[in-house]
Design brief:
Elements: H1 2-7, H2 9-20, H3 31-34, H4 44-48, E1 74-77, H5 94-100, E2 117-122, H6 130-136, E3 142-148, H7 151-158, E4 168-172, E5 189-195, H8 206-216, E6 217-228, H9 233-236, E7 243-245, E8 248-250, E9 256-258, H10 262-271, E10 275-288, E11 293-305
Parallel strand pairs: 2-3, 2-5, 3-4, 5-6
Antiparallel strand pairs: 1-10, 6-11, 7-8, 8-9, 10-11
Biased composition (Basic and acidic residues): 45-66
Protein name: tRNA N(3)-cytidine methyltransferase
Function: S-adenosyl-L-methionine-dependent methyltransferase.
Length: 313
């Protein structure tokens, strides 16, 4: 049965986005509080001009089989280890994406080649990180790449009115497929961001996926991650039959999720040649008054940098 979930993974995620489209997750404006690297040089005044319901009070979205788009949640911190603040176009033709899978990417011939600051989001979904970055980061040298396993999600990004092909390139990509190329050369990216995406990968494929991403970073470039931590409420609510392997589960809709420890993530990143900048546990108490539920959430947030003097390719 676990093999079926792996083979059909794209189907389960396509079905998810066909059902929810862009109504499931809120835009992640909390990212600029947690990850100022996404909008370097932006004044705090500029960030405070964002709509109040999209700022730091927003709950970082965390997908569980029982969560829904209209959930009203109160949030309280419940650990001294918590972060110090509360956080919260026409479509590109398919053959364009396919073309990059079989090309040797040349240093002067790729989307965004003239950009001076390049960000890649892996597992972008319908653009809830990408569009806030494009809205908030007004650097004329910025170019944002975003990819997802789901062709349905990428189509929703490309057809969004905020999608600007002059500043952004969205493409379908399987993080675990070693035969697929990224549409950028090695050592070309300033930032790679993974938000609740690595947890959807089969555990024994995670290291190679991070290794490949690490090679795309410039020396001094950063990999940013936020994902599910061990003993998160979502993990505790899974039934016995939903456990595929240790700490790896399948949801009711066929999508899968892993729950990390800080040490596991540290090993993944350092094995890929990156140096730790941040590795924090963020514990939250969420209260859903509608369902009269109290939910203890556990997330891990990481920042790892590629060494300035690195011989790794």
């Amino acid at each position: 049965m676990p093999v079926d979930y792996e083979i059909n993974a794209h189907k389960y995620w396509n079905d998810f986005y066909k059902i929810h489209e862009n109504g499931f997750f809120k835009d992640r404006h909390w990212l600029f509080t947690e990850f100022p690297e996404l909008a370097p040089g932006q004044s705090q005044d500029h960030l405070e001009d964002l709509p109040s319901d999209n700022k730091r009070s927003e709950v970082p979205e965390c997908r569980t089989s029982e969560d829904g788009p209209g959930l009203k949640i109160e949030q309280h911190k419940c650990s001294s280890n918590s972060l110090e603040h509360e956080t919260q176009t026409a479509p590109v033709e398919e053959n364009v994406t396919q073309k990059f899978n079989h090309l040797e990417i040349c240093a002067d011939e790729f989307p965004g080649s003239s950009a001076t600051y390049r960000i890649l989001e892996v597992g972008c979904g319908v653009g809830n990180t990408v569009f806030p970055i494009l809205q908030t980061n007004n650097d004329p040298g910025l170019f944002v790449y975003c990819c997802d396993f789901s062709s349905t999600a990428i189509e929703l990004v490309q057809t969004n009115s905020a999608y600007d092909p002059c500043r952004c390139f969205a493409f379908v990509h399987d993080l675990c497929d070693e035969d697929q190329s990224y549409p950028v050369p090695t050592r070309s990216l300033d930032i790679i961001i993974l938000i609740f995406v690595l947890s959807a990968v089969v555990p024994d494929k995670m290291q190679k996926a991070i290794n490949r991403l690490s090679r795309l970073l410039k020396p001094g470039g950063m990999m940013l991650l936020r994902d599910y931590g061990r003993h998160d409420m979502a993990q505790l609510r899974f039934k016995k039959g939903q456990c595929l392997s240790e700490n790896f589960y399948v949801r009711g809709d066929g999508t899968r999720v892993y729950f990390f420890t800080q040490d596991e993530l540290d090993t993944l990143f350092t094995t890929a040649g990156l140096e730790k900048v941040q590795n924090l546990v963020d514990r939250r108490l969420q209260v859903n008054r509608g369902k009269q539920l109290t939910m203890y959430r556990v997330w891990i947030q990481c920042k790892y940098r590629k060494p300035l003097l690195s011989s790794a390719g």
